[in-house]
Amino acid sequence: MMDSQHGRTVNMASSEADNSPCDEEPQPGDLIEIFRPAYQHWALYLGDGYIINLTPVDESQAAAVSSVKSVFSRKAVVRMQLLKEVVGGDSYRINNKYDDSHTPLAVSEIIERAQLLIGQEVSYDLLGSNCEHFVTLLRYGEGVSEQASRAIGAISLVTAAASAFSVLGLINTRSRNRPF
């Protein structure tokens, strides 16, 4: 269960909210988690319906809002866009989930830092410098991404399993090839 400080889910297509009242509006500096079909996209709320987020360099602004290609890009552009246009038919929630472990900067500082980056091209890396890292860096002064940590953990698990199967296969092959 989520509390109102840490998040609520809103489906833009139906305007229904889950886990908290519908009348809660994002506040400047809030982290916005947008649920895409294959991943979560992160943005930072600036106010007056606008967010700041990362989009792929090589796509038009309209195509960039929901593209899976954005996950695999190496460069991104910082854009200010309307929250409702970025969310489209997907759902989102206000998710300041790191507030318990990281102290947010002053809202004025968050907004000022965000506005200085609009239009800038930045490096993008799914595991080390993604959209969640970007918005948490703005809010807390430190880039954090639970999504990237989970992905790194999954990659490590798959690598360890593949190594184990490889070793087991090698042992099994050697035992079958013995002449005695």
TrEMBL record:
Is Membrane tagged as a keyword?
yes
Could you name the Gene Ontology cellular component terms for this entry?
Answer: cytoplasm
Question: Which terms are listed as keywords in the entry?
Answer: Hydrolase, Lipid metabolism, Membrane, Transferase, Transmembrane, Transmembrane helix
Q: Where is the composition biased (Polar residues)?
A: 7-18
Q: Can you supply a Gene Ontology BP term from the record?
A: N-acylphosphatidylethanolamine metabolic process
UniProt region (Disordered), positions on chain: 1-27
Give the matching Pfam families: LRAT
- Which GO MF terms are attached to this record? N-acyltransferase activity; phospholipase A1 activity; phospholipase A2 activity
Alphabetized InterPro entries for the sequence: H-rev107_PLA/AT (IPR051496), LRAT_dom (IPR007053)
Membrane-spanning intervals of the chain: 151-171
Domain LRAT, by residue range, is 31-147
The record's comment on protein family reads:
Belongs to the H-rev107 family.
Its recorded name reads Phospholipid-metabolizing enzyme A-C1-like
Phylogenetic classification of the source organism: Eukaryota, Metazoa, Chordata, Craniata, Vertebrata
